[in-house]
Amino acid sequence: MNMKLVIAICGLLTAGIANADPVNLDFQDGASIDYAGLNGWNTNGGTGPSVAGLDLFAGCGAETPCTVDQQFTAAAGDVLSGYAQFIAHDSLPNNDWSFVTIENMATLITTTLFSSDVQTVGDNGSSALTPWSTTIATVGNYSIQFGVANNGDNYMNSELQVSGLSYTPAVTAVPVPAAVWLFASGLIGLGATLRKKA
Fold first, then answer.
1. Which CATH architecture has domain 17-171?
2. How far apart are CA 188 and CA 71, in angstroms?
3. What is the torsional sign of CA 52, 58, 59, 65?
């Protein structure tokens, strides 16, 4: 019985962390390349056609962002990146706005990876296609969110285009096999010694 305990402990010490990577990063669900497929994503609002990725339109109510988000589990060192572009279909004083954020679900800390608004791009203007990237600091559950909102009215809906999403898991060091076997043999020896004493 002690031997089974020792083997179980060795297995736990060498086990890795499961990583449920984000899914459907190209927003294509196989139905058509011309329309955004949102399998695996949560939505609140309208999406439109986009060959390159996701086209998210405002229109969920003044000051209420239309959003697309997904929760996933990540390891420290994993990298999530992509591109975003805000296209204003409005003018000041209606300062429509957009964002890309990531939230650590344990700490509830949200980091803004991209943001733009009418005041920044000008009346009926657009931002450049802007790269964004984040490296996960600690293992845990995260939520990536894209959003765009009207400001001051609920028509002349601005849009956020998202494309080129990429998720790169961290390269983890593999333990030196000799060190693992040496440690395991020490535990087995300890188990055998304890068994003889009993």
1. Sandwich (2.60)
2. 41
3. positive
Written as six digits, the tokens of 39 are 């399998």
pLDDT confidence bin for 3, thresholds 50/70/90: very low
Q: Which of 163, 180, 156 is nearest to 114 (CA)?
A: 163
Residue 68: strand pairing partners: 43, 146
Q: What is the pTM of this model?
A: 0.72
Region 113-119: mean pLDDT is 96
**In this structure, are residues 96 and 148 in contact, taking their beta carbons and an 8 Å threshold?**
yes
Query: Under the phi-then-psi rule, with left for phi > 0, alpha for psi from -120 to 50, and beta for the rest, what region is 22?
Result: beta
Q: Which helix (H) or strand (E) holds 120?
A: helix 118-121
**Domain residue spans of the chain:** 17-171
Query: Which band of pLDDT confidence, cut at 50, 70 and 90, is reported for residue 181?
Result: low
